[in-house]
Amino acid sequence: MLRRIIALLAMLGASFVVVVAMAPAANADGCDVDEETGEVVCEDEEDGGGNGGNGGDGGDTGGSSTCNYNGREIPCTGPGGSVWSSLHECWIGPSAGELGEDLQPPAGQTKEDGAWHVCYFPPPGSSWEYTWVQTGEVVTIDPVVLAQRAIASMDLDPIQIGIVPESGPNRVGLVGLPVWMWVDSPTDDTFGPITASASEGSVSVSATASVSSIVWDMGDGTTVTCTGKGTPYADHYGKQDSPTCGHRYEKMSTDQPDGAYQVTATSHWVVEWAGGGQSGTIEFDLTTDALPIRIGEAQVLT
């Protein structure tokens, strides 16, 4: 066993040709092989580079090559430059070479159909073993990672709030009168739809993102969920309710911090992606900064 491990470690230092497509740009510093036991040891990374399908709270969804394994992120490149395989759930390393000469191909396979390769398992679990990799099999980055990179490249932002009564020190709405909310000056990166793609090696993923709904927190303990961009207010509407997205305050805001209700709008983004033989949906939220809205009561003179 020790002879096999020593020979294996020697192979890691040499260049090798495998039937898998080697994915570029991955950090192998996080994983090492214990020379005595052959165990694969990976250090926890402070900066994984992905937001697990969030992507909307400032998390970095692109840049580094991280792959998914049992719900956690691991480097896409393992010991000796081995490449993560979602199919085999291990890092595929060099061909077994002479060490695999006495290993027979799986039933129904011949040596022309593939080769035995070193297969490193992430902890916890076994250290490594040989696995059969068929000729022409491609091992590349997880398509979900590329979908996250595509989302990051969109540079999405929260909406700009359009609201009447307006925000400002000299602006005051009245209790009981209709409040209108809408998306002010919508753009592709604040409301969608917007499409972007990302590629690595032979895998390319395209993603399209759009806002499916907006949840308005009115600051008075109520929320209003609206689909669509809403209807901008115009003077000729008078005291009509908004036909698409509105609210009415029942109390003055004088007892609120700074004497105003703090209104926020949370956009719910839905991203449909496809590529690398897979497809899926990623959802996340983006929330605006709070906007103060002052509400008072009309004074009746007698």
From TrEMBL:
It comes from the Bacteria. Residues 1-28 form the signal peptide. Keywords: Signal. Residues 36-66 are annotated as: Disordered. Residues 36-48 have a biased composition (Acidic residues). Residues 49-62 have a biased composition (Gly residues). This is PKD domain-containing protein.
